[in-house]
Amino acid sequence: MNTNGLSNPAPAPSEAAAPLARYERVKEHIRTRILSGEWRPGDRIPSEMTLVGELGVSRMTINRALRELTEQGVLTRFSGVGTFIAEEKPQSTLLMIAHIGDEIRARGHEYGYSIMLAAREAAASDVSAALGLAPGASVFHVVCVHRENGVPVQLEDRYVNPEVAPHFLEQDFSAVRPSEYLFNTVPAHEVEHVVDAVLPSRADAKLLEIGADQPCLTLVRRTWANNVAVTFARFVHPGTRYRLGCRFSSDSMQRQS
After folding, report:
1. What is the distance between the alpha carbons of residues 46 and 3, in angstroms, rounded to a whole number?
2. For the chain, what percentages of helix, strand and coil (3-state, to nearest 5) are there?
3. Quick one: what percent of the chain has pLDDT higher than 70?
4. What is the pTM of this model?
5. Bridge-partner residues for 119, per DSSP?
6. Strand, helix or coil for residue 126
7. Which domains occur in the chain, in start order?
C-alpha cells in the first residue's frame, strides 16, 4: 500500500497490542500529517471520497473520524465547502480574579460590605516597593469588610496606583465595589497571587470580629496593566469561615507546567 495507507508492519510478539479501530487509525493518520507540517492550520484537507480511496476504508469510517476530530477542535467543517485544519487558538495561563460578592450570592446567601477607609496617602515603603513607586509616593488606599449573612468573611486592604486609575476615589463605593471598578476600568494583563496562613493583627481581628489567636488565610494580590503596577491588595479570611481553592482541568495543568 502507498505511504498514505493505514497498513502497519506486524509488531513483534512482545509489542503486540489490541489494534486500533479503523476510525481511530484514520484520526491518527490525520494527526500525523498535521504534526509533520504537511497540513497546516487553515488548509483544506482532501474530500471524504478522496480519503476513502487513499486509506482504503469506508466512507462511514472517514465520516466518523472527521466528525470526532471536529468535536475535539482539530478540524473545522463547513457544509458545502469542505473540511479544514482548525486555526491554532491562543493559549494563556489564566489566574482568575474572583469577586467575593458574586460567589456569596451564587451560594444563595446575603452579601454585604462596608467601606472602612477610602483615602489618598503617602505610601509606606512596602507599598511603594510593591507598586514600583518612589518611596512616599501618593497612593489611593481603601479598606473594606465583606460579609456573608452578616458575618465578616474577608477583609480587603487595597492600595491603588493613581497613575493608572486617577478617578478611583471619585467612585460611589456604595454602588460599585472597588474591585469591580478596577476590573472594568483597568483590565489586568498580569496577576500575582501569594497565599499565607497567618494570625491577624489586632486591627484586622477587630474588623473581622474574631479573636487575635484565630488563624487566617491571607491572599496578597498584585496586578499590572501594560507592565505598570495597578494595585497591591491584601485579603484576610478567617480560617474557620472561609477557604481558598480552585478547580481546573488537566489540560490547563499541562499548559502551566
Report:
1. 16
2. 30, 30, 40
3. 82
4. 0.59
5. 141
6. helix
7. 15-85 (1.10.10.10), 100-243 (3.40.1410.10)
Alpha helices in 98-214 (DSSP H): 100-106, 125-131, 178-185, 202-208
**Locate cell 486617577: which residue?**
166
Task: Please tell me what DSSP assigns to residue 183.
Answer: H
- Residues 123 and 159: beta-carbon distance below 8 Å: yes
Cell 473540511: give the residue: 83
Residue 198 CA to residue 238 CA, distance in Å, equals 10
Give the orientation angle of helix 59-71 with respect to helix 48-55, to 10 degrees. 120
Contact (Cβ atoms closer than 8 angstroms) between residue 158 and residue 141: yes
Q: For residue 253, what pLDDT is reported?
A: 36
CB 85 within 8 A of CB 96: no
pLDDT tens digit sequence for 116-165? 999 999 999 999 999 999 999 999 999 999 998 999 999 999 999 999 99
DSSP 3-state of 203: helix
Report the amino acid identity of residue 116: M
The Cβ of residue 254 has, within 10 Å, a number of other Cβ atoms equal to: 8
Q: Take residue 119 and report the three cell numbers written for it.
A: 483615602
